[in-house]
Amino acid sequence: MMSAPNVSAASAANSASATTAAAATAFLTGAAGALPSRTVAVLEAIKHAILAGELKPGQALVETDLAEVLGVSKTPVREALKTLAGAGLVTMNPYKGAAVRIVDDEQARYVYDARLLIEPVALSRAIALKGAGEAGGDWRSAHRALQRADHAAGQAERSLADRDFHRELYAGCGNPLLTKMLDDLCDQTALVSAAAWRHEPGGQHLPSWEHEAAEHRAVLQAAEDGDAGRAAALLRGHITSFVARNFPEPQEPQKSQENQNR
Question: Which sequence spans correspond to the domains of the chain?
Fold first, then answer.
C-alpha cells in the first residue's frame, strides 16, 4: 500500500479522521484548485511528488493505491501515468505496471546532450525578444528561483528550484513547442540532478550545487545585460561542465600488454 507524504504538525493535532483526510489530500500539493480537469490535477500531483523525491526512482506506481491517496477514481490516475510516461518520468510495463523512471548515467548524458542543443538557442531567443520590447524572459522570476535554491532545506527542494530557474531562462523564447520539449527534458534531469550535487572531485571545498549557483548567476547577468551570445555560451559551458563532472564518459579498458606489444 502506498503511503501519503507526512502531514504538518497542525494537522497531526487534529482527530485521527482529520489526519487521515489531510494525508489523503496532501499529495495534491495545492495542484487541484485552479486546474480545469481532475486528470490534470492528478498528473501535477504525481509529477510534483516524483520531482520532489517523495516517489523514488524505481518505485512502483499502483493505480489503486494512488487513486485512494488522491481521493479519485482509477481513470484519471491511469491517464496521468500515460502522460507522464510520454514525458519520460514514468515507465510502463505490461507485466509489472508503472514505475518511476530510473535514469542511469548513459540516459542522463543523452538528456543533457539534447538540452545542450536547444536550451542555449531558446535562451538567445528569449533575450532577443526582451530586447525588442516583447515578452521575452522573466529575469525577476529567475532571481527568485535562485534565492529559493540558496535557501533550500534539502536536495529535492534545491533541484526543483534549479529546474524553475532554467525554465525562466527559456520560457520566453516565443515558441511553445520548444518550451514543452525543454520542460520534458528538465523534468527528466530533475530525477538525477539532486543526486549529482555532491562534493566536487579533486578536493575542492565548495559543494557542486554552489558551483552551479555561481554559473547560474553569470548566465543570468549576461541575460539581463542583453548579451545573447555571451549568455548562450555561458549556459552551454554550464551544461557541459555539469555533465563532465557528474556523468563522465566511461573509460575504455586498457589493452593488455600483450596486445600493445603486437
Answer: 16-100, 105-246
Q: Retrieve residue 46's grid coordinates.
A: 504525481
- Cα separation, 200 vs 209, in Å, equals 9
Report CA Rg, the chain. 21
Express each pLDDT in 71-124 by its tens digit: 999 999 999 999 999 888 999 998 889 999 988 888 889 999 999 999 999 999
Q: Which residues of 134-148 are buried (b: 16+ CB within 10 A; e: fewer)?
A: eebbbbeebeebbeb
Fold of domain 105-246? Four Helix Bundle (Hemerythrin (Met), subunit A) (1.20.120)
Distances (CA, A) of 172 to 16, 18, 104, 134, 180: 47, 43, 31, 9, 12
Residue 214, exposed/middle/buried by CB under 10 A (0-12, 13-18, 19+)? exposed
Tell me how far apart the alpha carbons of residues 114 and 20 are, in angstroms, rounded to a whole number: 43
Q: 3-state class of 215 per DSSP?
A: helix
Distance of CA 201 to the CA centre of its chain: 24
Domain 16-100 class, CATH top level = mainly alpha
Strands laid side by side in the 90-93 sheet = 60-61, 97-100, 90-93
